[in-house]
Amino acid sequence: MEKTFIFCRRPIDCAEFWSAFYWFLKQDMTDPPGVSLKILELRIVDYYTGRTQESVRNTILKQFSIDHSCLRVLIATVALGLGVNCSNVSRVIHFCVPEDIETYVQQIGRAGRVGSLTQCTMLFGCGVYKKFCNQYVTIIDKSDQHKELLI
């Protein structure tokens, strides 16, 4: 089953996204529908930050890495660091521009590990556009290494 990462900069953004999913999905936040959200293994959407308890983080990562688990969307901060291997991720959504190009490449590299096409989307406001263009386009223009990483 295809999975999606949603990256946010702040833990509060992750919590708000999770709350939005809950508001829209209500009883369908679990599989099967209507089961208690306290049963982490049955959640369809979850979030992972540096503030998440270690035992909960371990459960979330275990569930997300299983192909046919209930967990389909994982909202995370950079706390979802290197070494996490989830081969079935087909979408990466950034709710904001990452701190730097290396972080962006590392995060989008979490998808498409089984050789399938990947969809990466970045959402940001007009005020960020100029900063984004200056930082990312300049780096891409000046560095063949980053061009290869992005292509």
From TrEMBL:
Q: Which InterPro entries did the record assign?
A: Helicase_C-like, P-loop_NTPase
Gene Ontology CC: chromosome; cytoplasm
**DNA-binding as UniProt keyword:** yes
Pfam families reported in the protein's UniProt record = Helicase_C
Q: Which Gene3D superfamilies match?
A: P-loop containing nucleotide triphosphate hydrolases
Concerning its family, UniProt says: Belongs to the helicase family. RecQ subfamily.
Q: What is this protein called?
A: DNA 3'-5' helicase
